[in-house]
Amino acid sequence: MTAERDHGADRSGCSLEVVGQRWLTWLQERALPLWHSRGFDTETGLYHERLSLTGQPIGGLERRLMVQARQIATFSQAALDGLLPEALQTEAAERALGTLERVTRLYHRADGQSGWVFSLNERGEIANPCRDLYGHAFILYAHALAGRLAFRRSEASLAVKLRQRALVTLGEVKEIFAAPHGGLHACWASAPGGRARRSQNPHMHLLEALLALHQTWPEPVFLEEAQELVALACRKMIHPETGYLQEFFQLDWQPLAGAPASMRVEPGHQFEWAWLLGQYGAQAGARLTLAQAASLHQVAEQLFSLAMRKGFAQSGVNAGFISDSLDGQGGLCEASVRLWPQTECLRLLAQHAGRKGGLSILACLADNVMHRFLPASLQGGWIDRFDAAGRALSADMPASSLYHVYGAARAMVLKSAAGREKRV
Fold first, then answer.
1. Measured between alpha carbons, how far is 237 from 249 in angstroms, rounded to an integer?
2. Judging by beta carbons within 10 Å of its beta carbon (0-12, 13-18, 19+), is residue 62 exposed, middle or buried?
3. Does pTM top 0.85 for this prediction?
4. DSSP per residue over 384-412, as a string?
5. Where are the extended beta strands (E) located within 1-125?
6. Which residue of 304, 329, 390, 412 shows the fewest CB atoms closer than 10 Å?
């Protein structure tokens, strides 16, 4: 069966350059202006958590560290990529760097203890003092992108300060979330039930942060920490029999009790890990033997291939989109579809667009996502999730999705630009 028949007819009928231009226009004319303007609270100096479907800020919500970090990182990356609208190039970059400094003052050791608090209320007071690995991973990621932007802007003293703070935070991560059997706990010890099992997801984003840090400051410590996470993933997180990436584990990283069919698998995370393993391989380079490089490539390909074969809904109104979750044998678990797994698939498809059938699948999914999740009526916003019957489950627009959407869009835009350069 052809790729087109597997994942829906290619109704876009266009080249990679056309796909890239369509997403670039949406980014520059709709999404980035919306989330830079209405998505930012000028009174508190922090990014909003959510906007209504009419683009208005939603009040009364806690301001999570994770959301602040994702927005800082995304606007820093857009500035580095040169993809910000011309009118926002300076303002958005300066806002991202300035917000990171404000977030540091408000969240880092705000209660006198190591690490970054989970969230604040609208008055800038601590709402939830919990420390979570997920949020710490993203604040490290924000430091990496902001540091690179500081270098680009010739702000050497700021880059030095960001590097030092990243190293301090990395030390805090290893202290706060220390755990036996490799890897880290997902939250600090006082969180009720927070250490009852292990989770792959925060480790994945910590790996992402470490690779970004190493790209900004190519020092051995970042790549060595990344190497440990890659080894843990390959050794424990990927089921040796099925090849699927599992979500949760016992404290010693053994699979949760039950048959593989009872285990949760998220295709979106398979795409993310496949991408990150490729990024790690590229950065590790000569550190890897030929056998290690080949093994790493094989694992990444297996994750991508399984997610492509089993992740797409095959019937119903969500056919042609990535399902939210599968069981441990690849059977459908949740027939709902969210925006972020589609974007993670698009990012990898852009990388693999030169493969047989790759461009057709990319063009089809990019077009479908644009029409279904990013309708023109939302003016740069999105519908986050649809249920199995195709009904929108989102009453508002989470700011946290910009990180995923931008990652997919930049991959398609930069890939299309590289294609044009080759022909010149």
1. 8
2. middle
3. yes
4. -EE-TTS-B--SEEETTHHHHHHHHHHHH
5. 40-41, 46-47, 50-52, 63-64, 119-120
6. 390
Cβ contact 136:169 at 8 Å: yes
**Contact, 17 vs 25, CB < 8 A?**
no
pLDDT of residue 190: 61
Residue 236 and residue 182 in contact, taking contact as beta carbons nearer than 8 Å: yes
Q: Mean pLDDT for the chain? A: 93
Query: DSSP letter string over 129-150?
Result: ---BHHHHHHHHHHHHHHHHHH
pLDDT under 70: residue ranges of the chain: 1-13, 189-194, 257, 259-261, 419-424
Structural Rg of the chain based on CA atoms:
21
Token readout for 328 is 């441990």
User: Rounded CA gap, 250 and 236, in Å?
Assistant: 11
**CA-closest candidate to residue 405, choices 13, 10, 32, 15:** 32
pLDDT tens digits, one per residue of 302-361: 999 999 999 999 999 999 999 999 998 899 999 999 999 999 999 999 999 888 888 999
| Cβ neighbour number for residue 128 with a 10 Å cutoff | 15
Distances (CA, A) of 259 to 241, 251, 324, 354: 12, 18, 20, 38
- Read off the tokens for 217: 């400051």
Q: Record the tokens describing residue 184, joined without a space.
A: 């880290």
DSSP structure class, residue 126? E
